[in-house]
Specification:
Blueprint (H helix, E strand, L loop, with lengths): L6 E6 L4 H13 L5 E6 L11 H20 L5 E4 L6 H9 L5 E4 H12 L14 E6 L3 H13 L11 E6 L12 H16 L4 E7 L7 H12 L1 H4 L3 E4 H15 L11
Parallel strand pairs: 1-2, 1-3, 3-4, 5-6, 5-7, 7-8
Helix pairs in contact: 2-3, 4-9, 6-7
């Protein structure tokens, strides 16, 4: 019997075709046997999701479209490519049957970052990189993403996540990452990165926007400039889209209710 070929839908919940096109090279270059299709929200959706209101509006517009795919049993997994606790993730999660998996790039990014970040050493004289942080777009996301991290790891808003360094923003909207002058994007990305790592305690930097896919080189350059090559090499730069694809593929192959369990692979 031929192996079952899994199918995944990568959802851009804003209406920017340019952002979806920016993700295409990542999809084609990703070492995967999964068929990955992409979807862009209708034109009535916000072109850039800059706050919770935009996220809810886009979710309400996109969900009916995705529901048709769910009814057709077209995909084994859905990845929402918006770096936030986007309501579309749970809307789809509640609609799919057992064995179809859903995640957002924010959740996938934070979960992966935690697996890469060591538990702080008890000895005060031991210097370690024991935190992860986020470089994101507009300043409005700083508090929203920080609160989102606590929710993902199951902590209340008043809790303090000792392995979470925080969020630094570029001041650019998602669509400006690829429309603003290159030198402006580079400067703002580097400045945010350097603020995040200046204490040299960060192990993982999460790219806090789907539109940052492909900009990891700028973050790496900033790390070298701020920390030097030796310490910069110890820091992971994590793309949430790649993390999300990998997480769903792991679910396909390992969780109960998957095609493997039913002997289809």
């Amino acid at each position: 019997m031929a192996p079952y070929i899994y199918k995944m839908l990568l959802i851009n919940p804003n209406s920017s075709e340019e952002m979806t096109e920016n993700l295409e090279p990542l999809i084609t270059e990703y070492p995967s046997n999964t068929i990955i299709d992409s979807f862009t929200a209708p034109r009535s959706a916000p072109k850039s999701i800059n706050n919770e209101k935009d996220a809810l509006e886009s979710a309400n517009i996109v969900f009916p479209e995705i529901l048709q795919f769910i009814k057709q049993q077209k995909y084994d997994g859905y990845l929402v490519a918006c770096y936030s606790l986007h309501p579309l993730v749970d809307m789809i999660r509640e609609a799919v049957p057992r064995g179809v998996y859903v995640t957002g790039i924010f959740e996938a990014s934070i979960t992966t970052a935690l697996t890469l970040t060591p538990t702080p050493h008890l000895k005060a004289d031991v210097k370690q990189k024991t935190t992860f942080g986020i470089v994101t777009t507009g300043t409005a996301w700083e508090k929203l993403l920080a609160a989102g991290v606590l929710r993902v790891v199951g902590l209340g808003e008043m809790a303090h996540a000792t392995r979470f360094k925080g969020v630094e923003s570029t001041g650019l909207n998602a669509d400006e990452l690829h429309t603003a002058p290159k030198e402006v994007v580079t400067t703002k990305m580097k400045d945010a990165t350097k603020r995040l790592v200046r204490d040299n305690d960060v192990r993982v930097i999460c790219l806090g926007c789907a539109g940052m896919s492909g900009l990891d080189r700028i973050v790496t350059e900033a790390l070298i400039e701020e920390l030097g090559e030796k310490d910069a090499k110890e820091v992971y730069v994590l793309d949430g889209v790649k993390a999300g694809i990998g997480m769903l593929e792991n679910m396909f192959r390992s969780l109960p209710g998957s095609k493997t369990e039913w002997g289809l692979e």
